[in-house]
Automatic annotation (TrEMBL):
Name by which UniProt lists this protein: LytTR family transcriptional regulator
Keywords, ordered alphabetically: Two-component regulatory system
UniProt domain HTH LytTR-type: residue ranges: 193-296
Pfam families recorded: LytTR
Molecular function GO labels: DNA binding; phosphorelay response regulator activity
Keyword Cytoplasm belongs to the record: no
Gene3D superfamilies the UniProt entry points to: LytTr DNA-binding domain (2.40.50.1020)
InterPro entries to which the protein is assigned, alphabetical: LytR-like, LytTR_DNA-bd_dom
Keyword Electron transport among record annotations: no
Length: 296
């Protein structure tokens, strides 16, 4: 299942690391295991047996996020248990089912043929409305969207559980948690790069480097305060830097994207990266087409 959940995952990792750094001798907090991981969905079809029900059953069975599809004739046969479930029904059943199943683990989808049916689905808080006649692409997209929302729900629940445990463990009030996290995150060690320059070893935070220029067998490292000359290759130095911060401009120059003020495109198809301090670096056609053209 493909979802855009990296933000939630990053938050979980960050919070867990922050909590661990607060008291390394203590047992780390555990995420909430009461929320089952969303791997696949079950689907119940509360529809009159007809061509629509048959077609929908076949479509759902082929969706990668659905592992079981069952046609039912009454509410009693819908048993979400501890799994995440989609219930597809007609407008006549929508209100009753929405009142009967209030957990986020059961997502209601209404199938109808007109605006009145769509309004009914909206009023009862259905997760989606499928308009007749059925279109395969639309049905598949509805299930994928629900799958993504459920995964986000799981991540939010885990983060909430983690924060509640953290407040209890560290005796932090709810209105203090945001500032406490910001303080802890800012104190975490910054990634640094070490090198030998002028017969001495230097260590710089990657975020303090403005740009780097290759000059033969040496590298010129430019910062806001001073510059350093290092005997190494641009490829070796690039591997030590933060991957998502530095970007090639041409074969001999590398810039910290946080210091880029603008990308200047001239009439003769020549482009320059302009840094905050006014430095202008010419972008090669290869690197302009590969990155800078789409990130200006």
């Amino acid at each position: 299942m493909k979802t855009s959940l990296s933000v939630w995952e990053q938050k979980l990792v960050s919070y867990q690391q922050v909590i661990a750094s607060a008291d390394p001798d203590d047992t780390p907090l555990q995420a909430d295991d009461s929320q089952p991981a969303l791997t696949t969905l079950s689907a119940f079809l509360l529809l009159r047996p007809n061509n629509v029900a048959t077609q929908l059953q076949h479509l759902l069975a082929y969706h990668p996020d659905v592992h079981a599809v069952q046609h039912v004739t009454s509410d009693a046969e819908i048993m979400p248990d501890n799994q995440y479930t989609i219930c597809v029904c007609e407008p006549a059943h929508a209100t009753r089912l929405s009142m009967q199943f209030t957990s986020a683990r059961l997502q209601l989808v209404v199938v109808g043929s007109n605006n009145a049916d769509a309004l009914k689905a909206f009023e009862c808080g259905a997760a989606a409305f499928i308009h007749l006649p059925l279109r395969e692409q639309h049905v598949m997209q509805v299930v994928s969207d629900i799958s993504v929302r459920l995964q986000e729900h799981i991540q939010r629940q885990r983060i909430r559980h983690l924060l509640e445990n953290m407040m209890l463990k560290l005796n932090i009030a709810p209105d203090e948690i945001a500032s406490w996290l910001r303080s802890r995150l800012s104190q975490r060690a910054k990634k640094r790069v070490s090198f030998r320059s002028d017969n001495a070893w230097c260590s710089l935070a990657c975020e303090d480097i403005n740009w780097i220029q290759a000059a033969g067998d040496y590298m010129c490292i430019y910062t806001s305060g001073e510059n350093f000359v290092v005997r190494t290759t641009l490829a070796d130095l690039s591997r030590k830097l933060t991957d998502d911060t530095f970007q090639r401009v041409n074969r001999s120059e590398l810039v910290n994207r946080h210091f880029v003020k603008m990308v200047e495109q001239c009439a003769n198809r020549v482009a320059y990266v302009v840094l905050d301090d006014g430095t202008r670096l010419k972008i090669s056609r290869r690197h302009f087409a590969g990155f800078w053209q789409y990130n200006t």
